[in-house]
Amino acid sequence: MSKPSAAPSIPTIKVSPRGAARLKDGHVWVYRSDIVSTDGVSPGSLVTVADHRGQILGSALYSSSSQIAIRLISHDPVADFPALLRQRITEAVAYREPIIRDTNAYRVIFSEADFLPGLIVDRYDDILSMQILTQAMDAEIVRETLISELTERLHPASIVERVDPRVRQLEDLPPRPSGLVQGEKISTIFAMNGVQFHFDALEGQKTGAFLDQRENYAAAVQYAHGEALDVFCYHGGFALHLAPRCTHVAGVDSSRLALEIAEQNAKLNHAQLIDGGKEIEWIEANAFDLLKDYAYSGQRYGTIVLDPPAFAKSKRDLDAALRGYKELNLRALKMLRPGGVLVTCSCSYHVSQPDFLGMLAAAALDAHRTLRLPEVRGQAKDHPILLNIPETAYLKCVIAVVN
Ligand code: SAH
Predict the structure, then answer these.
(1) What is the pTM of this model?
(2) Are 45 and 21 in contact (CB under 8 A)?
(3) pLDDT digits (tens, 9 = 90+) for 328-378
(4) CB of 228 within 8 A of CB of 246?
């Protein structure tokens, strides 16, 4: 059997034995500290990766400034990078065909998990929202290929690029505004599980909505009852789903803008969902303060959802994050009636599922409540987890019935 050789004109980067071991273990990242030489390699290049003895490990995308210096894209030499991009996009679209149900909003491309590191594409009805996270994906030829292939596969009315200025800074890329890269449409209405949402491509957090919770909304509905409180409600994802099953629903968020859109979403669904003039109450507040006040004043609920922003942005934040989660969960548990349902989430990758369950167990003990967990869930199927890349598994959503 002949060994694969490097394609001509593609520079080679050597990695340390530790970097090579990481790739052999199935991860795709090599950190800067494990790079041995990058002589003459320009930012964002496609490179061949070799171990310190010169054995070729695959092809990767190089960043001259990120701590993640290379991201492997293939175990083989890559002669035609645009062709590989096209093939990966076709595969990502095909992967989703059998798993997308009851929605026209889903993640089309999830970076490493679709073997396209540094690229995220979400679909909202006929608008695609794209995020470019690395030097390599920012190259003009790459952008052109992405736009033409996405157009060919999905026929969107428009494609919008959402820019995270902090990411561009970390990648040493020049600033660039968010905006349309194709077409003119910037707003639409999308639907999931029969619930409708407004979408404005240039507003909001993430690429516009929290699509990773889509299946968790549907799961939560099966258990929800009584008076419900959706804490950290954003545009009302959980609250709108729970409304038909609950006697009263209140959504809490610190962002007035988010609540205004939540209110518009409630109007959009009035006819289908919220029978008998049932209104959702939207409360602008700091969730920590509000839960403390409500717990103190003896408020009781049948259902409470906790879906805070990521408390642990890095490993260093883990202890503080767990304290934050515990405080929220403890207060919520104290306010649930017997038989009540807690839907509790964490989107911090650095808080593992065992960490999160351990925190919940400690909160239950402190609250003197017994929890049964009918469901321990994660992110929706269009955000697949790649087994050897733990960073692709980040969302926890636990449904607990409280005695
Ligand atoms: N549950 C939502 C997503 C929540 S994202 C959904 O399914 O779509 C986290 C939300 O928490 C954001 O809307 C943010 O505005 C809000 N937030 C952040 N810190 C907060 C705080 N201290 N109190 C209340 N809301 C907060």
Answers:
(1) 0.94
(2) no
(3) 999 999 999 999 999 999 999 999 999 999 999 999 999 999 999 999 999
(4) yes
Mean pLDDT, rounded, for 56-80: 96
- In degrees and rounded to multiples of 5, residue 236 shows phi and psi of 95, 20
pLDDT tens-digit series, residues 117-128: 999 999 999 999
Q: How many domains does the chain have?
A: 3
Residues 152 and 114 in one domain: yes
Q: What digits encode the pLDDT tens for the residues 203-228?
A: 765 557 899 999 999 999 999 999 99
pLDDT at residue 27 in the model? 96
Q: Kindly state whether residue 171 falls inside one of the protein's structural domains.
A: yes
Contact (Cβ atoms closer than 8 angstroms) between residue 333 and residue 363: yes
Closest CA to 216 of 372, 95, 110, 346: 346
**For residue 7, is pLDDT > 60?**
no
Question: Among 254, 282, 293, 394, which residue has the most ligand 1 atoms within 8 Å of its CB, making it the best to mutate?
Answer: 254
382 and 241 share a domain?
A: yes
Q: What is the rounded CA–CA span in Å between residue 306 and residue 287?
A: 9
Q: Contact 321/311 with Cβ under 8 angstroms?
A: yes
- Range of 144's domain? 81-185
Task: Please report, for the domain that includes residue 141, its CATH number.
Answer: 3.30.750.80
Q: Does one domain contain both 61 and 179?
A: no
Q: Both 149 and 55 in a single domain? A: no
Q: Based on the fold, state whether residues 244 and 174 are members of the same structural domain.
A: no
The two tokens of residue 332 are 């919520």
347 included as an active-site residue: yes
Q: Which residues line ligand 1 (CB under 6 A)?
A: 210, 213, 232-235, 237-238, 253-255, 258, 286-288, 307-309
Strand, helix or coil for residue 12: strand
261 Cα: distance to centroid of ligand 1 (angstroms): 13
Which of 23, 53, 74 terminates a domain? The answer is 74
Residue 376 CA to ligand 1 center (angstroms) comes to: 21
CATH number at residue 342: 3.40.50.150
Of all protein residues, the one whose alpha carbon is nearest to atom 11 of ligand 1 is 232
Is residue 372 in some structural domain?
yes
Which atom of ligand 1 sits closest to the CA of residue 287? 23
Same-domain pairing of 41 and 92: no
